[in-house]
Amino acid sequence: MVHLSSVQSPNENGLGTEEDKLIRAVKKVHLQLANDEDNFVSSVYGSRFAGADLPRHEMPEKEMPKEVAYRMIKDELSLDGNPMLNLASFVTTYMEEEAEKLMTESFAKNFIDYEEYPQSADIQNRCVSMIGRLFNAPTSEEAHSGAVGTSCVGSSEAIMLGVLAMKRRWKNQRIKEGKPYDRPNIVMSSAVQVCWEKAARYFEVEEKYVYCTTDRYVIDPEETVNLVDENTIGICAILGTTYTGEYEDVKAVNDLLTKKGLNTPIHVDAASGGFVAPFVIPDLEWDFRLEHVVSINVSGHKYGLVYPGVGWVVWRSAEYLPKELVFNINYLGADQASFTLNFSKGASQVIGQYYQLIRLGKHGYRAIMSNLTRTANYLADSLEALGFIIMSKKAGQGLPLVAFRLPTDDDRNYDEFALAHQLRVRGWVVPAYTMAPNTENLKMLRVVVREDFTRNRCDALINDIKLSQGLLREMDRESIKRQEEFIHKHHTASGKATHNHPKYRVRSCGTLLGLFITPPCPTLLLCDTDRVNRRRNILSRARLARPMQSASAHMGSTNTSGWSTPTTNVPVELAESESESEATHSFTSIRKPKATSIAAAFVRRNHQAVKSNCLSLELPGGQKLLTVRIGCA
Ligand SMILES: Cc1ncc(COP(=O)(O)O)c(C=O)c1O
């Protein structure tokens, strides 16, 4: 019987035996161990660690028990949001226990040690092959002539590698033709994910944008191909934009290139769509079936269904991956060919990807993606019934997400941001943001439908949206604003953040009062309405170090009276003014809506960490004064 035990006395315990005598003798020996404090912890919460703050700045001098360290950190992390309610992210939040076990067991493996972990390396190759075939990559029995690819940390690294390969290939060709190669450019949608801007800036490639319009949130194929010139290293086409999830028409771009006899390569950014379209809409031609598509990236950690940290890039053939970029190194006794930005990385994510590919198979992926598409349709229909305007495509014509906005003609006290804040109080993370440059006056909300977002949870969200709208209807404008500020400050990481170095901190709510163009020196006036700066009436002045090639090209289209039409690179300056009213006065004459897009282009290119969702157009007091809210570095 083990459940009922008596409380024993020392005698009952038999402390009179020879063994007990020995124990008592040992206890008398005075041990002088280097242990000046009793570290024994009976309960984590009874320990002195629970009564003190956790070390923050300086590494502590002494150890803490592992149970305490685990519990204290776990408790702190419980204040993070619940990943399952985070409908902002495309990134996987659910994997089966068996996958988790396999991944945990591989934590100690450094993927780059091919010689030591040959099976992990082989598993990567199997994944590349499966993904390449899913994208209809050419295969060949002949060595080196079929498609090639590699795993990456995510689509961002994959895209960097894709851009580097296109740039080098273009450069090699220019050298061969004896032509200059100092002004490479890339053509892409203004709705690209930020990693494209990063790639262009890091690798010094000029960005040529095809701008979205208020009723087109993807590239216009004709405009795209028209932007191509001899310095174009490639075109980016997105299979599922981050804003609305819509698929760009890769085939139309491809066919136009063929029609015009152009040989420009296309890289498809299939970060999200790469694991959706092949299952839900297999007849859509967007991949290596199209002759100009030379490379494709996909995030394994989005609809590839693996926890964060894995992406893939595949090239049509080795011809599109210049060999100067591939490093053949002899490391730990093995010859390795690698094309990555990083050296060491864990093997777990690659192994997790292989698990999903063979565990689910095409049938499993199709079943999951079909469910997600159905749920997204259901959510879109329900929101439409509530009066929202749906901006994303339904029925599998785009990613399983719902981008929606409030009707513009409604007489409401609240906007999309206020609704997002209300939902945040109820635990949901549904981001509100503004559309890509040129359309940034469109506010919207977006729900990404992921594997673990079931119909049941979808109903809970719809209910909470209804409740939040009811609550907002009861509130006046002032209280909504106060509440928004409070939630931003206390519930969001960006509001609470104090750790960024001042040099790189994003200041919110700068207001661009207008665009003043006097040839030959156009001037942008930036007035910072941040409360502190408002008091000081400081307006920023900054002369651009780098000419704005793309923005100036865009300025060329504002050829109406009062506007200059620079055709070449334009130096742009942020003007300084002593007071806001003076600034306002100087710019009341600016009333061309194009100013917003120019301002947006300016802001995007010249302020690091600027969020395009901070851009908006305001017409205060009926006066046609343009203001653009930005967050600038
Ligand atoms: C279209 C697109 N491209 C690239 C990325 C970057 O992908 P990753 O987070 O895998 O680096 C994203 C991320 O959301 C995306 O939506």
From TrEMBL:
* Region (Disordered) residue spans: 545-566
Q: Which SUPFAM superfamilies match?
A: PLP-dependent transferases
Gene Ontology biological process = L-glutamate catabolic process
Q: Where is the signal peptide?
A: none
Tell me its EC number(s), please: 4.1.1.15
Family under the similarity heading: Belongs to the group II decarboxylase family.
Name of the protein described by the UniProt record: Glutamate decarboxylase
Name the species this protein comes from: Rhypophila decipiens
